[in-house]
Amino acid sequence: MRTCRTLLTFVLCSITLSLCIAQEQLGLRTENYSGVNSLALNPANGTTSKFQWDLNLVGAGFFGQTNYGFIYNTNVGDILNKLPEVDVASNYTSESQFPINTLIVDSYDNNKKKFVSINTFVMGPSLMINLQSGHSFGVFTNLRTGVSSQNIPSVADYYHFDRTPIREIIPIPSFDVATLLWSEVGINYARRLETATGSLSIGGSLKFLNGYEGGFANNRRDFTLSQLPGDTLDVTSLDFSFGFTTSNEEGTDIRINRNGGGIAFDLGAVITIDGFEDDYQWKFGAALLDIGRIRFNQNAESHRVNTDQPFLIPTGDYETVNNLDEAVELFSEQTLSDPALSYESGDFSIWLPGALSLQADYAVTSGVFVNATLIQRLPYRSNVVRRGNLLAVTPRFEHRWVSAALPISLYNYQKMQIGAAVRLAFLTLGTENLGSFIGQSSFTGTDFYVALKVNPFKLGFDFGGGGRRGGKNVKCYEF
Fold first, then answer.
1. Cα 469 → chain centroid
2. How far apart are CA 11 and CA 112, in angstroms?
3. Of 134, 141, 128, which Cα lies nearest the Cα of 51?
């Protein structure tokens, strides 16, 4: 089964090594000086900002995490020094045989479902204006990418497949994967209302989307397969759909073409409870994020293979394939006995990584806070870049000119990691996976984010619940 093993090795290396690119950038979004950046966590956050206005000049973030595989005893700096020397652990009988100055990639051997999640963002010029009257306005621009599969079956790991005997049945449950490259231009509005104990804010963001590249694959129902001699797979039946954009299928130059578009929105609410003179005691937030999808209707193809008849896939046939079109035609021929029969249409849609966002912020004392954030992805059925689940507690110190945060997060309720973030005036730097930069351990992912912005030197008016200056408002009551 040389070709099958080669394919699995390639997938393992690609998954693990591509994860050099934060899930939610907590150090950039949770403090009261976050300004326009905080709108990505809750669109009502603008009304509790301590700034009258906040202008993001440029920001960027990179995130990747998986439990499919890992790289032995390394960190980000070590990876950069050793690339492109990469090998797989299955080529050696013990760790003592690993060559030096080479990255050794391996697969986890367990019965857990596997996940892969990669996302990046570049935030362009974006502005938030917070009025004393309780109205907040914002405009923002983003370029984003996402790659995700949150339900890779455990039978797909390298060792399980490699040690399965010839002709033994392997059950394959349903799974999906999607990738997306898009930009968004958004407008935001939020309204703050004073209450007897603090304030209530409600806000929303409307986002206009441009889709550049996208692809998905969806195994719609369980099936079984077995390995046969001669690099061949015996498949019982299949209901498998997939789609992709074709604007960069050929050639080496990357072209950024608009192949589709769509609309998305965020909705959120924030409640504050009065406490310290300059800060609230409690702040609670809830939001729905990234509700929308992109429809690709240019340079796009969608396919489906739906058959109850068993078929064979000689995997060695793909060694002579030169491009994606040839691979699709070959797959259609092998499964449906017709190279064109899998084609369904010239369009498809992919949902954005929608999620429910819950936040709680507690002021320990003036300038010292503890934040708790829960991100839970929404249960779309298919064709979606699935967001990773996140539970995090972030203690922080914040001041007009400096802040520091220590996010402690549990990604997908499996892997705990500690991060660090610091803001010096207008520059923020942070990571939610500090361990990936220091020490040497099993490397399963990393992240980094940065933002440069400008905002007022002075904090000039009472913001109601977000950082009061000059004392609290006196509430008047009628009897």
1. 37
2. 18
3. 128
Mapping DSSP to helix (H, G, I), strand (E, B) and coil, where does residue 18 land?
Answer: coil
Cα 428 to chain centroid, rounded = 20
- Region 35-62: what's the mean pLDDT? 95
Specify the DSSP class assigned to residue 320: G
Domain that holds residue 430: 2-454
Cα 152 to Cα 112: distance, rounded to the nearest angstrom = 9
CATH number for the domain that contains residue 228:
2.40.160
Three-class DSSP category at 435: helix
**Whose CA is closest to 193, among 479, 473, 459?**
473
pTM of the model: 0.86
pLDDT digit string, tens, across residues 201-236:
999 999 999 999 999 999 999 999 998 988 899 999
Considering its fold, how many domains does the chain have in total? 1
Distance CA 46, CA 201 (A): 9
Q: Confirm whether 469 is domain-assigned.
A: no
d(CA 269, CA 45): 8
pLDDT by residue (tens digit) across 286-332?
999 999 999 999 999 999 999 999 999 998 889 888 888 999 999 99
